[in-house]
Amino acid sequence: MRGLGVGLVKERSVGTSGVFVIVGMALGILLFWPLPGAEANSCVDCHKTLTDPSHVKHSFLEWEQSVHAKKQVTCNSCHGGDPAKVEKKEAHAGVWNSNNAKSRVYYQTIPKTCGTCHDQYQAFQKSRHYMMLQKTGKGPNCATCHGAMATKVLSLQEMQATCNLCHPKPYQAYETLAIVRKTALSISLLKDALGAARQAGRPVAAAEAELGRAQAELALAKQAWHTFHIKEIFAKGISAYEHAQAAKNELDRVKPPKASP
Ligand code: HEC
Ligand code: HEC
Ligand code: HEC
Ligand code: HEC
Ligand code: HEC
After folding, report:
1. Residue 173 CB less than 6 A away from ligand 4
2. Beta partners for 33?
3. Domain with 82 in it
4. What percent of the chain has pLDDT over 70?
5. d(CA 12, ligand 4 centre) in Å
């Protein structure tokens, strides 16, 4: 699946940073304990106790509720530093405020840092957004759209609002993302229906072929998303949708006729 680049994470970088496990959830607060025998993560250990300055406290709370915390992606994965050192000064070696160009989370460096784990960086480097980010500083980086530490994937409405921060004229992005998501959903439903039809001994080869085409086109659309070549992505999304429709028609065609009352 990684070859498809659909929101996947490179295996090599995952797991190495995970030294804590989520062991409990009480009153909406995640508690962290070191695994017995596992190396402790000093960033998390120390920062969870900080109440001051407020921007530092706030950052911890944002991270704590993020998908990254749940997957044991710790502070050092994005900020650098040495999570094996307990002294602040030693642990902070290589950690800089994000407004410092040496920081791994400096606004122009963010895509590269996220790209150590996320394949989306490959497509993003081909985008006009990336080019403008590097040339003029005016393009968005990953954190503009996904948040810095309270990381998430935007809903359609949130995406619209985010794009509008810089684009008064709407691109076809909304329709494009809508068709991509709608097709993904219908493909997953069709997979179930196809499995049931096969079990019932109905001829499903034609539906299966169309579903395969739909999946391939959808994978291309998703893979291209971060290039923001919207017209191209829209065309692939539509094509995926049409193949999914064709698969559905094939399945309907081989349905046994309803018994007349
Ligand atoms: C012993 C406690 C301690 C440890 C260990 C520690 N920090 Fe900090 N960190 C702090 C404190 C306190 C601050 C507030 C600013 C200051 O005093 O330097 C801070 C600030 C920061 C900031 C904000 C910097 C800024 O300029 O605004 C980042 C980012 C950060 N820490 C990341 C990390 C990472 C990554 C690690 C692990 C590699 C880590 N910290 C380990 C105590 C710690
Ligand atoms: C997925 C990457 C990622 C992880 C994991 C992460 N951060 Fe951050 N953090 C960022 C980014 C990006 C910024 C820059 C914020 C911005 O551009 O507004 C930031 C900003 C901060 C700031 C504000 C000061 C500054 O330099 O702007 C602090 C403090 C901080 N992080 C601490 C932490 C701590 C402590 C952890 C672990 C508990 C952590 N971060 C985990 C990406 C991350
Ligand atoms: C050390 C590796 C690592 C780094 C660095 C990292 N991530 Fe992640 N990220 C992950 C893992 C692991 C997940 C959970 C993946 C999953 O469950 O499919 C994840 C999940 C996400 C998700 C949610 C995907 C989904 O489908 O819900 C987004 C968005 C995301 N990361 C964006 C970022 C951004 C933006 C940065 C940089 C500021 C970043 N990540 C840095 C490993 C990383
Ligand atoms: C201009 C806004 C924008 C920027 C910049 C951006 N993304 Fe995204 N990203 C999105 C949107 C919108 C989606 C949802 C696409 C979908 O649902 O297929 C998304 C999806 C994702 C996902 C989840 C993919 C999935 O299929 O679940 C990850 C992970 C991700 N982006 C990481 C990144 C990384 C890493 C960067 C920087 C290299 C980045 N994004 C830059 C808007 C952006
Ligand atoms: C931080 C500002 C910013 C945000 C947020 C932003 N963009 Fe852009 N976008 C730009 C800039 C700058 C350009 C380049 C305009 C130019 O060509 O002069 C651009 C160009 C584009 C282009 C044209 C790409 C090309 O290849 O010609 C598309 C499409 C686009 N953006 C879509 C989006 C979408 C969709 C979103 C929201 C998910 C979004 N943008 C969010 C700044 C932004």
Report:
1. no
2. 21
3. 2-91
4. 84
5. 21
